[in-house]
Design a protein that fits this description.
This protein has 15 helices and 12 strands. It is α/β, with parallel strands linked by helices. It has 2 domains: about 120 residues, no CATH class; about 220 residues, Alpha-Beta Complex (Spore Coat Polysaccharide Biosynthesis Protein SpsA, Chain A), CATH 3.90.550.10. Strands 3-2-1-4-8-6-9 form a 7-stranded mixed sheet, with helices on both faces. Helix 7 packs across helix 13, helix 12 packs across helix 13 and helix 12 packs antiparallel against helix 15.
């Protein structure tokens, strides 16, 4: 490696470790506490979720500290009996309302934003706190109360409680931990959570908690009707309107296993990775530095101690991110996954290239629906 670039891997990985350490010490965390007195409305868009949705329904029935709770579920033209499974799991609990939608979304809309918008319309008579949950999220009994309380304590209009990302198979373990690491090691939260700059927004569509009036004031999901990464774009939309958004650690209260195979990992991330970094040129620049810093650099840097230092810092930042995300002690598996960080970054780069190529070919799909450009 030339002398000009010899310090890049160390600078990149050491910088990531410093930011991760800062965030580990300062990140807001959901905490159990007193009951929430204001209305809380939960909206769940579900398409072909017959296996996962009943488990979430059971978790919602067990919620504590939310006396004024209403749960709205929309079966988005599923073909697997999702609505019936949700109805059975709700067991005539009067807090649940289960609707069914048929057909594809109208022109100009993608499926999830349209389903979320319909659910929000069904709750137009309620103020307070508006929550959107993915069907594959699991919740501890105090999760909703803790999230609603954190929304108010942080004085924000959108809170993204970050669930622990469950990873089981090799493909999941290679890529899923990068979701949390990608912001924990790059976005200093003491600044990012207080800023209204759209570029510093962090959001996770699995679990989003809004002030209901603020959500409607910015247009809600109508403002991001055709966006593949609707969660992040909605956070940016709120910031453009002068609204504050924040991310909080929620691994002790919420978890999510997004995908269960390498094919699902590819399709799931491939549908939105092309939207990151602004353009193919921007993606090439960011990924070039990232691969240089975390993959190629540590392997070829001379003297070897520089490469070893870069690798050690990268592994440490991964371990910090996993510890913060999970809220529990690290395991041997966590250590093994962190040691594979250079492979994880290379895999992310490959998935991003694949996403751009599939988008150009018009072959991106999700849940048996084509993904049109925003």
């Amino acid at each position: 490696m030339t002398r000009r670039f010899v310090g890049v891997p160390v600078a990149v990985s050491a910088g990531g470790l410093a930011i991760a350490a800062l965030n580990a010490a300062t990140a807001p965390r959901l905490r159990a506490g007193s009951p929430v007195t204001e209305p809380v409305t939960v909206c769940i868009p579900a398409r072909d979720e017959v296996e996962t949705l009943p488990r979430l329904v059971a978790d919602l029935r067990a919620q504590r500290g939310v006396p004024d709770l209403r749960i709205l579920i929309l079966d988005d033209d599923s073909g697997d009996g999702t609505a019936a499974s949700a109805t059975a799991a709700a067991a005539a609990d009067g807090r649940f309302s289960i609707e069914e939608a048929e057909g594809d979304p109208p022109p100009g809309w993608l499926g999830k934003p349209h389903a979320c918008s319909r659910l929000a319309d069904l709750s137009a008579d309620r103020g307070g706190v508006l929550v959107f949950l993915d069907a594959d999220v699991r919740l501890a009994p105090d999760a909703l109360a803790a999230a609603a309380r954190a929304l108010r304590e942080l004085r924000v209009d959108l809170l993204s409680p970050w669930p622990f990302q469950v990873a089981v198979t090799a493909g999941e373990r290679l890529l899923q931990p990068l979701l949390c690491w990608s912001w924990l090691a790059t976005a200093p939260l003491p600044i990012a959570n207080r800023s209204t700059r759209p570029s510093m927004a962090v959001a996770c569509g699995q679990f989003m908690v809004f002030d209901a009036d603020a959500y409607r004031a910015v247009g809600g999901h109508r403002a991001v009707a055709s966006c593949v990464a609707e969660d992040l774009e909605l956070a940016r939309t709120m910031r453009r309107a002068g609204r504050r958004t924040a991310v909080a650690v929620a691994g002790e209260f919420a978890s999510c296993r997004m995908y269960s195979s390498a094919a699902q990992v590819r399709d799931g991330h491939g549908r939105w990775l092309w939207t990151q970094f602004g353009s193919p040129v921007g993606a090439a620049a960011v990924l070039g530095v990232t691969v240089l810093g975390y993959t190629a650099g540590p392997l070829v840097t001379r003297p070897r101690r520089w490469g070893a230092a870069a690798f050690a810092a990268a592994v440490a930042s991964r371990l910090l991110a996993r510890r913060v995300e999970s809220g529990r002690a690290l395991t041997v598996r966590d250590g093994a996954d962190a040691a594979a960080h250079p492979l994880s970054v290379a895999g992310l780069a490959a998935l991003t290239v694949d996403s751009h190529l599939r988008r150009r070919r018009g072959t991106l799909t999700w849940k048996n629906r084509p993904l049109r450009d925003s």
